[in-house]
């Protein structure tokens, strides 16, 4: 089957699984004993910077919200608490509408990749638990950057930027795609603030994914 795109790059949270709110809640849980006003600031920042790694977010929270230095040991402790808080939520999270069906139907038709700010071992575990790890040619996560992973995929798949579709719900992957000239599809769920510029193609879910890849969307 000839398709409009030869490769697809998916973000994970908010694109494959409905985990965005659970991960924001996990940051609030880690700081549950702090000033409520500062917890509100943490929530707002986490929601606005979905494509940023937890390591960068914790450095921001400690330095900018709480005005205190952070050691590598403290950072590791915060990340351990955060991971414990999200594991159950990720394990029980539902697929974004159309994600499982689209990924399954496109297996073997387009090279599919996951690139996320979540740690790579967590991504592999979550996808393996759902039996879809083998649907993806590669799975890339923190500490790798989205830009470097997008560039790697262009080279490994031997494709032009216009033959790749990046799908994400945050400005991090949008900017990585724009920097490389890769077409981008923004996933903006109902009720979620739309932070993407005018002119960016948007969908509320992945129900139209196969049609889009086939050049019908």
What does this structure look like?
- There is one protein chain.
- This protein has 217 residues and is an alpha/beta fold.
- Helices cover 47% and strands 14% of the residues.
- Strands 3-2-1-4-5-6 form a six-stranded parallel β-sheet.
- Strand 2, helix 6 and strand 3 form a beta-alpha-beta unit.
- Helix 3 (54-65) crosses helix 4.
- The protein starts with 6 loop residues before the first strand and ends with a helix.
Brief sketch in words of this structure:
It contains nine helices and six strands. It has helices spanning about 20-30, 35-50, 55-65, 70-90, 100-105, 120-130, 145-155, 170-180, 210-215; strands spanning about 5-10, 110-120, 140, 165-170, 185, 200-205. The longest helix is centred in the middle third of the chain and has 20 residues, at about 70-90.
Keywords:
217 residues, alpha/beta, 14% strand
Oligomer: single chain
H/E element order:
EHHHHHEHEHEHEEH
Distance, first to last CA: 16 Å
Overall 3D shape? globular
Radius of gyration: 17 Å
Report the portion of residues in β strands: 5-15%
Strand arrangement in the largest pleated sheet: 3-2-1-4-5-6
Q: How many beta strands in the DSSP annotation?
A: 6
Let me know the average pLDDT. Answer: 95
Largest sheet: 6 strands, parallel
Class inferred from helices and paired strands: alpha/beta
Helix tally? 9
Query: Approximately how much helix is present in the residues?
Result: 40-55%
